[in-house]
Write a structure and sequence with these properties.
This protein is mainly beta. It is built from one helix and 24 strands.
């Protein structure tokens, strides 16, 4: 009898999960609040949320502008600036190599801030405390070598921390064709892999939607996302697909996303929904300028929001995406759009 009750309970829970409606989002045009000191944003190339639902961005300061905002900015949930810092080594404390083109940002569960850069010589990842104190550099600047070099990156794009193993996953990147993993405390190399979990190569392949799927990642490998159940999601941007792996790099599945998309591709960034099952992925697409909601069970598109444009709720080169614990979605834009937007679940007061 007890086994039958457990089976029924599992069935009902599964049915409820399947019946749950995907989120519907609407823009909050009042967020964020005006920046202090007359600051001006450049291209906002990364966004993250932390354990307190604060929102962090990394942006490329506008050159030769007296009011250029610092590269890293922290906002509270109401959109007020809390902290701002970053930039080349100030000559105090341990030396680090800043980026020629800032790219991704992650705030890990311990509160450390991880940054990347996709400039032509950016071969490093940097780790800071919340208030901008330098902690660790993995890799170093220089000319890119190859996708099996474990001493440096080649224009890395995003990082994600697995708190269970204390491992840092890096999507690498604009010159390499891989995901690479390090110890988050020491920076020691652990492992890396390419498409389908195979060793990566450096052959540059074009994209043809009528051809069989490419056997290696294209450029760039633009994001990596970690689910609580141990799955790893990788943005293969120009190849219009998401590939799914286990933590050891073994291949699980791939999903074609708007495979007719040419040019810069359709899979720019991914963020997981905050529900216990993390049932959905939000997919930012800076070519078609929309955010898609993917069902995580199979990659099926179950919703979209946004369209091309410069008005609130529209996108121009939507580049990065993050979700907080209450289901708010934050997006950033580059190529002159230079902003961060907030979307809230429809119907929320």
């Amino acid at each position: 009898m007890r086994r039958h009750l457990l089976t029924l309970a599992a069935f009902l829970l599964g049915a409820a999960a399947q019946a749950a409606e995907p989120p519907r989002m609407q823009v909050d045009p009042s967020w964020p609040q005006p920046l202090p000191h007359g600051w001006t944003l450049g291209e906002v190339s990364g966004v993250a949320t932390d354990a307190h639902d604060h929102v962090w961005i990394i942006q490329r300061p506008v050159a030769d502008t007296a009011h250029a905002a610092p590269p890293v900015i922290e906002f509270d949930p109401e959109g007020r600036v809390v902290l701002a810092w970053g930039g080349p080594w100030p000559g105090q404390g341990p030396h680090y190599d800043w980026f020629t083109n800032e790219h991704g940002i992650t705030v890990d569960p311990k509160g450390f801030v991880w940054l990347g850069g996709n400039g032509s010589a950016d071969g490093q990842i940097l780790k800071f405390t919340r208030d901008g104190r330098f902690v660790l550099q993995i890799g170093h600047p220089g000319t890119a070598t190859n996708s099996n070099d474990v001493t440096r990156f080649a224009r890395p794009t995003e990082t994600r921390l697995d708190p269970a193993s204390n491992e840092l996953y890096v999507s690498d990147g604009y010159a390499n064709h891989r995901v690479i993993v390090f110890d988050a405390d020491t920076g020691a190399y652990k492992r890396h892999w390419g498409a389908y979990g195979m060793p990566p190569t450096d052959r540059h392949l074009g994209y043809d939607p009528k051809a069989p799927p490419a056997r290696q990642f294209g450029n760039p490998v633009h994001c990596v996302a970690l689910a609580r159940d141990g799955l790893v999601y990788v943005c293969d941007r120009r190849n219009d697909r998401v590939q799914v792996f286990r933590h050891d790099g073994s291949f699980v599945a791939e999903w074609a996303i708007r495979p007719e998309t040419r040019g810069l591709g359709s899979v720019w960034d991914l963020a997981l929904s905050p529900d216990p099952a993390q049932g959905y992925l939000f997919n930012a697409d800076g070519t078609n300028n929309e955010v898609r909601i993917l069902r995580r069970a199979d990659g099926r598109i179950v919703g979209t929001f946004g369209r091309p444009g410069r008005q609130p709720g529209q996108f121009h080169w939507v580049h990065s995406i993050a979700v907080d614990s209450t289901g708010n979605v934050f997006t950033t834009e580059v190529d002159g759009a230079n902003r961060v937007q907030k979307f809230v679940p429809a119907g929320r007061p």
